[in-house]
Amino acid sequence: MTAPHVFFYVQHLLGIGHIARASRIASAMVDDGFDVTVVTGGLPVPGFPAAGIKTVALPPVVASNAGFSGLADANGTAADEDFLNRRRDLLLSAFEAAKPDVVLIEAFPFGRRQMRFELLPLLDAVEKATPRPKLVSSVRDILQENRKLGRDAETASLVKAHFDAVLVHGDPSFVRLEDTFPLAAEIADKVRYTGLVAPPPAPLPVETFDVIASAGGGAVGIDLLRAAAAAAARLPDSLSWLLISGPNLPEGDYAALASGLPPNVSLVRFRKDFPSLLAKARVSISQAGYNTVGDLLRSQCNPILIPFVAGGETEQTVRAERLQKLGLADVLPEIGLTAEKVADAVAAALRPRQKPELSLNLEGARESARIIRAMIG
Questions:
Q1: Are 6 and 36 within 8 A, CB to CB?
Q2: How many CB atoms lie under 10 A from the CB of residue 256?
Q3: Helix intervals (H) in 186-262
Q4: Helix, coil or strand: residue 292
Q5: How many of the other CB atoms lie within 10 Å of CB of 75?
Q6: Which is it for strands 71-73 and 61-63: parallel, antiparallel or unpaired?
């Protein structure tokens, strides 16, 4: 019997969270016997998608600013109409060649409005295909607050007109779709909660650090890293620190950061064993992105979260504040961040504390595969 084929579109524009989550879901589907093609539209990220997964790499685009209001090519040049039309045609050709049973689109139509130039034509192609594949939206648990009138209504209209299901990658006991999407009731019949897409429990690390400061993809994390490095100099040098810059931190920032580090602080761009390192760390300093929080929930370290807020972003703040309310994290504001504030927070986090018991579903990747299999019979 032929394995069902999933055509999985994912576009990351700034960080690596979207491609990391999609890669975990794709790997779970492959393990469940699906034939998966992941279509990527951002800059290459080492390790994503995972080895063994078929990929189609469109000419990459990135966000031209922190507010995600424009697109640029890999060289930072504004993406013109010819470039975008070529991307659209490549995407549609890949869809036609794949003849999938399921089309899975990450974020859209709840996000990634910048990609409508190619995603609306893809929706039309899905509707015209014979047989028509199932169309599924894959979204994180907390959505960005819409600041423009009519956006939520447009999203709900697209879901009702085209999508067979919406996979919400969260635990409804932690946050529900209606908490950040006011029109959730209009599409409630299509919503399926999968649980959080977290990594499997990590093996013990080959080395340990007391404090780990990480900046996700690194494109917007330099202030966090600078504050962490300066905080290390204010605390006992018996503490071992690891700074993980992310692959997208500009080379000049990386070099400047590396040149002034205390002896007890190490700096790397990427650690494949990041979840394992968290398993033995005492404190983590990070933003509050979806995947980082998933890693933290698998660990026993004490998180200090500094949610990303540039460009009016609200998603990380909502997630961080909910974790703080549950006693699972401390929170520092990104605006006005100083070495002194970080040092004080680390000192507090190093003191013994009792973590509350909280059982969240962290098996979102496997549950996503199960739901999709049930949809196609």
A1: yes
A2: 12
A3: 222-234, 251-259
A4: helix
A5: 7
A6: antiparallel
Class of residue 151 by CB neighbours under 10 A (exposed 0-12, middle 13-18, buried 19+): middle
pLDDT of residue 36: 97
Q: Which amino acid is at 226?
A: R
CA distances from 223 to 210, 253, 351 (A): 21, 10, 25
Residue in the block written with tokens 């869809």: 95
pTM over 0.85: yes
Helix or strand or coil: residue 353?
Answer: coil
Contact by Cβ (8 Å): 192, 167: yes
Backbone angles phi, psi at 323, to 5 degrees: -65, -40
In the chain, the N- to C-terminal Cα span, in Å, equals 13
105 membership: H or E segment, kind and range: strand 102-106
Phi, psi of 358, rounded to the nearest 5 degrees: -150, 120
Q: Give tens-digit pLDDT for 19-30.
A: 989 999 999 999
